[in-house]
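>> received
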Amino acid sequence: QVQLVESGGGLVQPGGSLRLSCTASRSIFDFVGVGWYRQVPGKQRELVASSSDGMINYGDFVKGRFTISTDNAENTIYLQMHSLQPDDTAVYYCHAKRYISVQLRDYWGQGTQVTVSS
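>> returned
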């Protein structure tokens, strides 16, 4: 079983920054991909950033403001966010996927609330 534990969310003013952390219960190297998604009530969960097979992808709305990174020694995935705007308000979820035999399994964290407001 894989556990993903997020932290770092909170209230920030427009234009501010936050760094989200996600610590996995096993090595990052066990995963074929890791990433961050976000969701607001009434909308589908959307990709924020992902890292898989050496490729990094960001949602179109990121526009260079966010950076995904990993600390393999600490089994931690980070999302550094700058220039936050009220539209970035959402619950942010950590995601990881790995193969168990030939089956690809998805894992999600519990979510951390990010609120951008003055």
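>> The longest strand covers residues 90-100.
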